[in-house]
UniProtKB/TrEMBL annotation, chain A:
Source domain of life: Bacteria
Keywords: Membrane, Transmembrane, Transmembrane helix
Name assigned to this protein: Tripartite tricarboxylate transporter TctB family protein
DUF1468 domain location: 9-142
Record-linked Pfam families: TctB
Transmembrane segments: 7-29, 41-62, 74-95, 115-133
Keyword Cell cycle included in the entry's annotation: no
UniProtKB/TrEMBL annotation, chain B:
Superkingdom of origin: Bacteria
Keyword Signal: yes
Species of provenance: Paracoccus maritimus
Protein family according to the UniProt entry: Belongs to the UPF0065 (bug) family.
Signal peptide: 1-28
Gene3D superfamilies, per database record: Bordetella uptake gene, domain 1, Periplasmic binding protein-like II
Protein name listed in UniProt: Tripartite tricarboxylate transporter substrate binding protein
Automatic annotation (TrEMBL), chain C:
Membrane recorded as keyword: yes
Pfam families, per database record: TctA (PF01970)
Annotated coiled-coil segments of the chain: none
Keyword annotations of the record: Membrane, Transmembrane, Transmembrane helix
Superkingdom in the source lineage: Bacteria
Organism: Paracoccus maritimus
Segments traversing the membrane: 19-49, 61-86, 106-132, 144-163, 169-191, 203-223, 259-282, 329-349, 355-379, 391-408, 414-447, 468-490
Protein name from the UniProt record: Tripartite tricarboxylate transporter permease
Listed InterPro entries: DUF112_TM
Keyword Transmembrane helix assigned: yes
Domain DUF112 residues, every copy: 20-439
């Protein structure tokens, strides 16, 4: 039998997060009393609750069969990296280079080979974002890297 | 970093001076700066009161400087994010407007703050001040400030007042007031004046120090009354409200104001700061600007950079003492 | 001035050519800006605010109002077609709207959302006109205890949404509540779970959270599969239109959602979020086939859309009648009035009747315009889905990033989308419902601050929750709801696991 690993891992992760939050909040913030609750009251109680719920999800799943769902590792990595690069680059490099880099990285896992269409896509999207966000919505952000200083 | 930029600026201005055959280096330098758009960081969202105030000054400022002045809204942590973003910008082209918090109380109240006010910030000019009013529901017992203090003394901790959060100007002002009046009140933190107003009108809490413009419409509709104002002089937006200082046994020097100032990163060329200070003082003299500020509850100020520096030092000390008392009481 | 006189007066104000032009301008810009993922009404209004400095206050308020509800129409488009909700309300719409789009019924889902939005707005306007006085009194008589009790009821009622296993649904709500704790604690000023980042002191950015949990997570799973399936077949005009069955299913949810929204919307705070979730939960509960929800039930689109649009209208009740803004968007609108020298407050209705009645009538005109504008656009929006996904998704990523950036100009928030996106993808794999996380996230801080505030005000006496009549009603209703759920679970348990 293939166990319901999704619920086992999901539940275990919830339990771990809950326990971590509860212990951290208990150590860091004042718990207070029911009458005068401190900043630690809610995180501690909620963390404990989540830990309990996590166990309630994980334990029954051990004796239950479940379907496997594929984990799209490449796609996840490329998309998340593209977003992170965009966040780091926007204020330093400006809109155009950052957009182009993000599009190139994001398009890596796309199932069509070749570089030509990727570069063209990067240029087209960069132009589109400039048109919509900079010219249209007048958002304040650097467009190109600042030259000189 | 700052030293190199200053040298570049000097070299550039010297070259320009030679080219134009101008004798005075200082004049050339002023004519030279700014050569590109100037960025002004505001630690509050577009459309908020500190943002509108900043734009009232930066629009005429752009005309005077002959370069666009780009307002960058970087809201967060009560204005601290805006100051941090300003410090990360290019010296000479990165400035900020901020309320008093990030320069006075935030270093005490906000953890993990990345700057030191004394060493990292260069004051440019005080732009505006705003007092708070002590407001109660219209049908509340006390008729005036003396009555309020009397009622509070008769029932220590019995009066519940609202503020816009632990450590906010409204909270610290109330505690400063309570200490000076020798009374004790119960603090109920809210997140906005809108909530405090609703709660006072609904009779859930008794009082609150709040922005005059938040209280005024309710006073005109006979739902609230104002017992006193925290500025040293009567405030033009609410001219009939008596000042708290010297009233009902309160000390003559009682003052609690929010303010809004134009600042620069430390290391900005003093000549640039002087030029900005002059321009801002001129703008603040404009009756139209003054009127628009007053409509939002701000009184246009002005003054030298040193005056602002003094204000920062004074307020840091006053509010620091209040924070000490609050922390000791907990 | 009687209501009828007021409406006629409002008509003369709203039909002035220049005002009408700004109304059209507002709704058109609101729609197109709202379609951009992550750029909701808040960002759209603050981006357009500078324009209003140069026009009359009536025109300014009417235009910004148009942007406000126009952005909601637009926001529904992105959440139905691509599962890119920028607000918790749109997240509810995507629960069934997106499955409909995947079944090739995007046109029907858009039609349902637009018609429901229009009807919801009209219900909201009627309530605004007839019951403004009553609702504004209700808004001031709600105290901290009442808010806390109401939000708990909302949370409990909605936390069964789309849950095959209740424990997984509750876990999502609780995780949302925990994420809602991040930031400065209002009551003590302590920075909680910020781990030394000043960017987190005001909490996690809601738009970043919604975009990461929904849009980014969905996108990752689709890159390869969408390409394999090929682009969807050409959609004929017939398929854009709802079937008779669809039409029959819509009026009930719209009427109920509109009524819910117009009540909760008038309460300052998150009336709009609560009413969308409650409307969804209610439709699912009274449906004879609740299992259809989450698989593309048109009721799940119509009800919540009617609810959030009527809430958007009745949110103007406290703003206009008391001068007290219920949420940041309303605060921004009031700020725009103050810039024009109009002091909003309890006296505005008498002092500036043209403001109130002009706005009310323009709401109706604006929503009618939106319907006329948007129905023909459905075909264009749907045809966007025919763009090859390998071209579409990198553009979506960049647009999402900029949408998040538009909220507070923070590169940190964009990077946060990457982290939240990873979480969202893992949650989607393990089949947890992210909408419930969002609900917990939005309501958590409100429940906590109101609960603690109520205890402070009552000097630590918990009986306050039963003494105040409003709060007592909510507490009893919550207990009844939990009781009936437990009773149902017990009966299922008794009748054996096979059932």
């Amino acid at each position: 039998m293939r166990r319901d690993w999704h619920d086992i891992w999901g539940g275990a992760a919830m339990a771990a997060i809950g326990a971590a939050v509860a212990f951290y909040a208990m150590g860091q913030y004042e718990f207070g009393t029911l009458r005068r609750m401190g900043p630690g009251f809610f995180p501690t109680v909620l963390g404990a609750l989540l830990a309990g719920l996590g166990l309630m999800i994980a334990l029954p799943a051990w004796r239950r069969s479940g379907e496997a769902r594929p984990f799209a590792a490449h796609e996840a990595l490329a998309v998340l990296a593209a977003i992170a690069l965009f966040g780091l680059g926007l204020q330093r490099l400006g809109l155009m280079p950052t957009t182009a880099v993000a599009v190139l990285v994001a398009s890596l896992p796309a199932p069509r080979r070749g570089w030509r269409w990727r570069v063209m896509l990067a240029v087209a999207i960069a132009a589109l974002t400039w048109l919509v966000f900079k010219e249209g919505l007048q958002m304040t952000m650097p467009v190109w890297p600042r030259l000189g200083t | 970093m700052a030293a190199i930029d200053r040298r570049n600026l000097l070299v550039a201005s010297a070259l320009a001076g030679v080219g134009a055959l101008l004798p005075a280096l200082a004049v050339a330098q002023q004519a030279e700066w700014p050569t590109q758009p100037v960025h002004v960081y505001v630690g509050f969202p577009a459309g908020s009161s500190p943002d509108v105030l900043a734009r009232l000054v930066t629009e005429p400022l752009a005309e005077r400087l002959g370069q666009p002045v780009v307002v960058e809204n970087k809201p967060g942590a009560g204005g601290v994010i805006g100051v941090q973003q300003m410090l990360a910008g290019e010296p000479g082209y990165s400035f900020g407007t901020t309320i008093n918090g990030p320069l006075t109380t935030s270093p005490r109240l906000v953890p993990d703050i990345s700057y030191d006010v004394q060493n990292d910030i260069a004051p440019v000019a005080l732009m505006a001040t705003a007092p708070l009013v002590l407001a109660m529901a219209a049908d509340a017992g006390p008729a005036d400030l003396a009555g309020f203090i009397e009622a509070a003394k008769a029932d220590p901790g019995g009066i519940a007042y609202g503020s816009v959060g632990q450590g906010s100007g409204a909270h610290l002002t109330a505690e400063l007031f309570a200490d000076a009046a020798g009374i004790e009140m119960l603090h109920i933190p809210f997140t906005s004046y809108a909530e405090v107003t609703t709660s006072i009108i609904g009779g859930e809490i008794d009082a609150g120090f709040m922005a005059p413009s938040a209280a005024l419409p309710q006073v005109e509709a006979d739902k609230m009354k104002m017992l006193g104002v925290t500025s040293q002089q009567p405030f033009a937006q609410v001219p009939d409200v008596p000042v708290i200082a010297g009233n009902a046994g309160m000390p003559e020097d009682f003052r609690a104001e929010l303010w809004n100032a134009f600042i620069a990163p430390a290391g900005t060329d003093p000549a640039i700061i002087d030029r900005l200070n002059t321009a801002i003082n001129e703008i603040l003299q404009d009756p139209d600007v003054q009127e628009k500020m007053l409509a939002m509850g701000w009184k246009a100020e002005g003054g030298a950079p040193a005056d602002l520096a003094q204000r920062i030092t004074d307020d840091t000390q006053v509010w620091g003492a209040v924070i000490d008392r609050i922390e000791a009481a907990q | 001035m009687t209501t009828l006189e007021g409406l006629l007066y409002g008509l003369t104000v709203a039909l002035q050519p220049d005002i009408l032009i700004y109304c059209v301008l507002g709704v058109v810009m609101g729609t197109f800006i709202g379609v951009l993922p992550g750029i909701g009404a808040m960002a759209a209004i603050s981006l357009l605010l500078p324009i209003t400095y140069y026009i009359t206050p009536e025109a300014a308020l009417i235009m910004l109002g148009g942007v406000y509800y126009g952005a909601q129409y637009g926001g529904a488009v992105a959440s139905i077609l691509l599962r890119l909700p920028g607000t918790p309300q749109s997240a509810v719409t995507s629960l069934d709207g997106y499955p409909m789009a995947r079944q090739g019924r995007a046109g029907v889902a858009l039609f349902a959302s637009m018609v429901a939005s229009f009807c919801g707005s009209i219900i909201g306007i009627v309530v605004l006109v007839l019951l403004a006085g009553f609702l504004s009194r209700a808004a001031t008589s709600f105290g901290a205890a009442d808010y806390a009790a109401m939000m708990v009821l909302g949370l409990v009622a909605a936390s069964t949404i789309g849950a095959k296993r209740p424990s997984k649904a509750f876990a999502m709500v609780v995780l949302g509540l925990i994420l809602g704790c991040v930031g400065t604690d209002v009551n003590s000023g302590v920075a909680r779970l910020t781990f030394g980042r000043t960017e987190l002191l005001d909490g996690i950015n809601l738009v970043a959270l919604a975009m990461g949990l929904f849009g980014v997570a969905e996108l990752i799973g689709n890159i390869t599969s969408a390409e394999r399936k090929g682009s969807p077949p050409h959609v004929s005009l017939r398929q854009l239109l709802p079937t008779r069955d669809d039409l029959r299913r819509m009026p009930g949810p719209i009427a109920r959602g509109g009524a819910l929204g117009s009540f909760f919307g008038a309460l300052p705070g998150t009336g709009s979020t609560i009413s969308s979730f409650l409307s969804y939960a209610m439709e699912r509960r009274i449906s004879r086939r609740p299992e259809r929800f989450g698989e593309g039930a048109v009721e799940g689109v119509a009800g919540p859309e009617a609810a959030n649009n009527s809430a958007a209208i009745s949110a103007f009740v406290p703003t206009l009648t008391l001068g007290i803004p219920g949420d940041p968007i309303m605060a921004l609108m009031l700020g725009a009035l103050v810039i024009h020298g109009v002091q909003p407050g309890p006296l505005m209705l008498e002092a500036r009747p043209e403001m109130f009645w002009g706005l009310v009538v323009s709401f109706g005109i604006g929503n009618l315009l939106l319907l006329i504008l948007n129905l023909p656009l459905i075909g264009i929006w749907v045809s966007m889905l025919r763009i090859p996904f390998r071209w579409l998704y990198p553009a979506i990523i960049v647009f999402v990033c900029l949408g998040v950036y538009s909220v507070r100009g923070s590169g940190f928030d964009i990077a946060a989308v990457a982290v939240i996106g990873a979480l969202g993808y893992l949650l989607a794999l393990a089949q947890f419902n992210p909408a419930l996380l969002l609900l917990g996230f939005v309501l958590g801080p409100l429940i906590e601050t109101n609960l603690r505030r109520a205890m402070l005000i009552s000097r630590g006496d918990p009986v306050v929750f039963l003494e105040r009549p409003i709060s007592a009603v909510f507490v009893v209703a919550t207990l009844a709801l939990i009781g009936s759920s437990l009773w149902g679970a017990w009966r299922r348990f008794r009748s054996g696991p096979a059932a």
